[in-house]
Amino acid sequence: MLENFVETTKELLLNPVEKLKALRDERLEDAFVYLIALIVILSVLSAVVTALMGGLALGIVALVFGLVGSIIGGIIGTIIGAVIVHIFVYILGGRNGIGQTVKAVIYAFVPVAILGWIPLLGIIGLIWSFVLQILAVRELQDMSTARAAIAVILPLVILIVLAVLVLMFLLVVVGTTYVATM
To answer: Is residue 46, in this structure, part of any structural domain at all?
Structure first.
């Protein structure tokens, strides 16, 4: 996988459907090696931007701590995110196994890794990754686009609703506490 890193990345960005079909039989271990390579690249580029904006010392600290934290956090986050998405994939008929969903989440990270380190362009990478994840779930789980979109969007909607509810709860608690102390 690493010997074809640049080619894989380019194809996932420019011709994702064909590349995802080709990656269907890729080993999960190879996908994780690819993920770690993406995280290292994103961490190094982010540290460079941090150094340019905040000074060399801050950039070095960001690189050292960011690299280790990003790799560990990236792997854990990928697994958690993939499990959550896979629950919805399975409910909606995806039966190619959780490994394919994990690979879908990994390959969907490419636009964020490529653009995420650039201020403001990171948002475009995030949106592109979201679309790529729908395509990846569709291709790797043999699902319709609509079902794949629901499987990817629904967890996000639930997360946003829960975050809003928690925020509302905290505002009520803080507001009530403030009024009670007056």
So the answer is: yes
Question: H-helix or E-strand containing 93?
Answer: none
Number of structural domains the chain divides into: 1
pLDDT tens for residues 35-80? 999 998 888 887 777 777 777 777 677 777 778 888 899 999 999 9
Residue 113 in any domain: the answer is yes
Q: What is the pTM of this model?
A: 0.88
Give the Cα separation of 131 and 47 in Å (integer).
Answer: 27
Does any domain span residue 96?
A: yes
CB-based burial of residue 42 (10 Å sphere; 0-12 exposed, 13-18 middle, 19+ buried)?
Answer: buried
Burial class of residue 122 (count of CB atoms within 10 Å of its CB; 0-12, 13-18, 19+): middle
